[in-house]
Amino acid sequence: MPLDPAVREFLDQAAALGIPAMHTLPVSEARELIVKRRAMLEATPEPVARIEDRTIPGSDGDIPIRLYAPSDERGLPVLVFFHGGGWVIGSIDTHDLLCRALANRAGCAVVSVEYRLAPEARFPAAAEDAYAATAWVAEHGDDLGVDGRRVAVGGDSAGGNLAAAVSLMARDRGRPPLLFQLLLYPVTAADFETASYRECADGYGLSRADMIWFWDHYLPETAGRTNPYAAPLHADDLSGLPPALVIVAEYDPLCDEGEAFAARLHDAGVGTTLARYEGQIHGFVGNFTIMEQGRVAIDQIAEALRAAFARPMGAAGRAEGVGGSTGA
Predict the structure, then answer these.
(1) What digits encode the pLDDT tens for the residues 240-250?
(2) E strand map for the chain
(3) Which positions are annotated as active-site residues?
(4) Is residue 324 in some structural domain?
(5) At 314, phi and psi to the nearest 5?
(6) What does pLDDT average to over the chain?
(7) Alpha-carbon span 81 to 152, nearest angstrom
(8) Number of domains the chain contains
(9) Distances (CA, A) of 229 to 160, 232, 236
(10) pLDDT tens digits, residue range 280-319?
(11) 324 Cα distance to chain centroid
(12) For residue 245, what are the domain limits?
């Protein structure tokens, strides 16, 4: 279907501002650019009952996190969230609006993780930070006032990649048990020749050249790009992972790999919902303040999280009664 009118207006506004292509910039300027793009949302942060910034120990130094709690109630379930930005740009601050909305709509705590960025810290630094933060939250829930037995992971774009990687790492390493994975237009492979990469190579915000630039900073050795913790679509076995909601956008270079990952999860017996948002571009959920379909997606996410956190826990800590259907 055609581009959503709100998306078209957003792209036209960005073009009128003369914002340069991400892949043409030095990393420092690219990081400043995403802050300017977020300013286009012109939104007042919605209030959240409790916000706390702190650092937690990681495998290679402290990791900053930000906790969002929608109420003063202790023992809330928790979504550990990883921001997008191609593992190179983005931060807790660039995703503050989204994390506030997720906490309030889903009625859960959200822990946003400031993992190390490339090229200063290349793969597997971001994945290891994401895993370490998730394991710490599960083991120290009482320190945050959350229920460390009810933990989900999620993220958008490169953050979705990290959420999928953490789900694999948690299964492979035997801890922590996870209830759910939320994957918003995730990076799951480094294949720049899919149909969606070719058809959406340029003109829709995130470009093919941008993604090549991101991968070159994050994991320049192309031979390593089949490592499942870098490219989850290459995992030999996806069984035993937590149920998933995978959201993709029609006009996104990453659409095909997101759909392919959802299909493989389903085939492996993982309860998976695939939601393809027609007329939308990469990043539309984070642009929910100006894009109605972003708000629709947040409602879908909130419903999925509430359902996941309400499921009884099995003896192994996995959710019981998970179906294996994919809703495309």
Answers:
(1) 999 999 999 99
(2) 50-58, 61-69, 76-82, 109-113, 146-156, 180-184, 244-251, 272-281
(3) 157, 252, 282
(4) no
(5) -80, 175
(6) 93
(7) 9
(8) 1
(9) 12, 6, 12
(10) 999 999 999 999 999 999 999 999 999 999 987 653 333 3
(11) 22
(12) 5-310
